[in-house]
Amino acid sequence: MTRMPVLYLSHGAPPLADDALWTDQLARWSADLPKPAAILMVSAHWEAAPLSIGATRRVPLVYDFWGFPEHYYRVRYDAPGAPELAADVRKLVPGVQQDEERGLDHGAYVPLVEMYPDADVPVLQMSLPTLEPERLFEVGRSLAPLRDRGVLIIGSGFTTHNLRELRPDPDAPPPAWSAEFDEWTDRAVRSGDVDALLDFRAKAPAARIAHPRTEHFAPLFMALGADADADAASERRSVIDGYWLGLAKRSFQFG
């Protein structure tokens, strides 16, 4: 079975579906990947400790946003559950809890609608049990064997995420803080400087503006951990770049 890569992507809000460029970028990306046997999704929008996994039978959607037009609440994504993947996760990470009522939040289903529109790949969502980079990195490392079983591990966040600093003009240049943090992250990821990334609050420019709270950067650490023991030839590359209302939508592929 082909060893699957690991992804960290910027997932966008529900109106991502109206962004022709971004949806095309996500669709092209998935078309270049091997077809996964299942997807393990870690979204910025589910924090729960101890580490928890979601529904494995009927997988509902969680419309965890407010004030949007009604049609965004009618989106469907009827992906099959992934009970075998859930069992594998429980074997690899001690103390995992199961929440059969927890469906896919918008950090999970919004990009999946664009990447796998046929909803024919089993999906399991997993929580962020902490925001501490080192602990998330170790969880990711524990999950790495799933890659050899055809599982696509996706960390879904946003490379910069400060909603108070959104730029309403989509054609305006990005603010300096967003561009500086984005460029630093790109260099650190591609050079494999994991130590700097784990200490990004101290090392990255404008880190506290780019991430007043770090939940949208946190999935990157799980993705990095899942690629930590790859051989030296493992490729780290930026697949999507650019900005959305001033926020960096950069997304990475490992392996």
TrEMBL record:
Keyword GTP-binding on entry: no
Extradiol ring-cleavage dioxygenase class III enzyme subunit B domain boundaries: 24-229
Cofactor list: Zn(2+)
Keywords: Dioxygenase, Metal-binding, Oxidoreductase, Zinc
A Gene Ontology molecular function term of the record: oxidoreductase activity, acting on single donors with incorporation of molecular oxygen, incorporation of two atoms of oxygen
Assigned protein family: Belongs to the DODA-type extradiol aromatic ring-opening dioxygenase family.
PANTHER family: 4,5-DOPA DIOXYGENASE EXTRADIOL-LIKE PROTEIN
Name the record gives this protein: 4,5-DOPA dioxygenase extradiol
